[in-house]
Amino acid sequence: MNFGDIWNLAILSPMINVLIVMSKYLLNNFGLAIIALTIVIRLATLPLNVKQASATKAMQELQPKLAELQKKFGRADRAKLAQEQMKLYKESGVNPAGCMVPMLIQMPIWIALFQSIVRVLAIVPEDFLSLSKHLYSSWPMVFSAVPLGSSFLWLDLAVPDRFLVLPLLVGGTMWVQQKMVTPATVDPRQQAQSQMMLWMMPLMFAFLTLQFPSGLALYWVVSNVISVVIQYY
Predict the structure, then answer these.
(1) Helix residue ranges, H only, the chain
(2) Separation between Cα atoms, residue 97 and residue 111, nearest integer Å
(3) Share above pLDDT 70 across residues of the chain, in percent, rounded to a whole number
(4) Helix 188-211 vs helix 165-181: angle between axes, to the nearest 10 degrees?
(5) pLDDT for the residue 99
(6) Torsion angle, CA of 187/193/196/200, rounded to 10 degrees?
(7) 88 versus 160: which is more confidently predicted?
(8) What are the start-end ranges of the H helices in 9-45?
């Protein structure tokens, strides 16, 4: 069994079938199914997200001490700087990787959801043939539910939002999320780097939203709003 078979069996096929079933029970509305699945996924990963928020807050509190180490060892002894930074992280009980792990874990979910939306909203007969390979024969309801409608509010979930509302919402909600976790610093270089990251990620995801199906952008908006709420509390 190769990686593709494992991916289809363990991640892609379950997500496709769950999305179809959710859509059937949510007024045959695929947009509501995406929102519901997003909430379920975020609840399932809530411990990781809370850990990420805590790690980010702890990193913010360490910024003044890290800045002092940078001034003391930054140019004179890079090895000593790294050693003192690791010592500070250890003494403070902070793991710098703790801020990235939840995002890395969610990457396969984003990819699987993107592929699921493309396959579920099959347009041509060849797409239906590809979709049928992922449907569970033991779940008769999934066969009766397809094909699904792609309309949700003003959106066609199978294509990018032509009114550009979702790209703006994706970029805006991600900017708010980034702003909440951007540490305050008096170091001009670190301040410039923080400002670059504050704008780079939202702009990048907003641009991606212009290329990807609106269904995936809808997931990003709902997920970002939940992240903002978690970070706030």
Answers:
(1) 3-7, 13-25, 30-44, 46-73, 78-92, 101-120, 125-132, 140-145, 165-181, 188-211, 214-232
(2) 22
(3) 88
(4) 150
(5) 63
(6) -150
(7) 160
(8) 13-25, 30-44
Contacts of 65 (CB under 8 A, 6+ apart): 88
Distance CA(94)–CA(56), nearest Å, equals 9
Find where tokens 């001490």 sit: 65
Q: Which conformational region is residue 213 in: left (phi greater than 0), alpha (psi within -120 to 50 degrees), or beta?
A: beta
Tokens 């703790």, located at residue: 98
What is the distance between the alpha carbons of residues 73 and 198, in angstroms, rounded to a whole number?
Answer: 27
- At 94 the three-state DSSP class reads coil
Q: If we measure between CA atoms, which residue out of 78, 62, 94, 93 comes closest to residue 183?
A: 62
167: confidence class by pLDDT, cuts 50, 70, 90: very high
The β-bridge partners of 155 are: 152
- How long a stretch of residues is the chain? 233
